[in-house]
Amino acid sequence: MDHLDHSHLAANWTDVRRRVDEACHAAGRDPAEVSILPVSKTFGPEVVRGAVALGLHRFGENKVQEIREKSGPLADCGIRWVVIGHLQTNKAKDVARLASEVQSLDRPELAEALDHRLRIEGRSIDVLVQVKTSSEESKQGLPPAGLPAFLDELARYDTLRVRGLMTLATHVDDPAEVRACFRQLRELRDAAQARGHELPRLSMGMSGDFPLAVAEGSTEVRIGTAIFGRRPAAGSL
Ligand SMILES: *Cc1c(COP(=O)(O)O)cnc(C)c1O
Predict the structure, then answer these.
(1) CA 142 distance to own-chain centroid
(2) What residues form the membrane-spanning segments (predicted)?
């Protein structure tokens, strides 16, 4: 297996689940409320197969191209692929064929393109709306002010089952600043629910910041590094 042997992967997985449980207890929450989405980006099919052997069946990827490359060799595994990265509309066809869920839905044109392709495939998928809670220029996501109108608009696509919101916190050391991003997502969700949108899921928290996200109500943490190890540096793939 490339990068990581099996016992290492098993130990990492157990450790991450234990740390997420601890974060739940610290926040007075039931660990059953918080699931872990393993993020397998940059790791090859054999590593993912090792994770499947541990009982994991949903994997987050930030590039549709990687889902294409891995879904063939792993076709026997019954994996549900979750798109968590910025999505160009010209990738909608592959998403409609291969993904079970998109967490990075952030604009009307993308919803339109996904709906079109999902109709052709005769499928529907779960989606989360990615909201930009960080001030960083590089971060993707819908501006918070646009959320109410976007949610109203999504109601007309029966191929897209809107289940919640997703965000990436600002990448800084100050826990208060990171936590404020997660709090903002929860408050946006609460406001939308008060307007009648049912949004049970909040996908927030990664390897470096998940305890703060759990404290703010995350229902799903997206964990790459802490499970699979460090990714190869960009460009060296
Ligand atoms: C890579 C990635 C993650 C996981 O990051 P780690 O720090 O490795 O846990 C989570 N969410 C998104 C959107 C990502 O692209």
Answers:
(1) 15
(2) none
Nearest residue by C-alpha to atom 10 in ligand 1: 222
pLDDT digits over 1-40, tens only?
A: 445 577 899 999 999 999 999 999 999 999 999 999 999 9
Best residue among 12, 84, 181, 185 to mutate for probing ligand 1's pocket (most ligand atoms within 8 Å of CB) is: 84
CB 224 within 8 Å of CB 178: no
In tens, the pLDDT along 200-224 reads 999 999 999 999 999 999 999 999 9
Please give the mean pLDDT across all residues of the chain.
Answer: 95
Q: Is the CB of 38 under 6 A from ligand 1?
A: no
CATH number for position 63: 3.20.20.10
Which residue puts its alpha carbon closest to atom 12 of ligand 1? 84
168 inside domain: yes
Q: How many domains does the chain have?
A: 1
Whether residue 1 is contained in a domain is answered as: no
3-state secondary structure of 146: helix
CA of 156 to the centre of ligand 1 (A): 30
Residue 160 lies in a domain: yes
Return d(Cα 61, Cα 43) in angstroms, integer. 10
Nearest to 164 by CA among 114, 130, 210, 211: 130
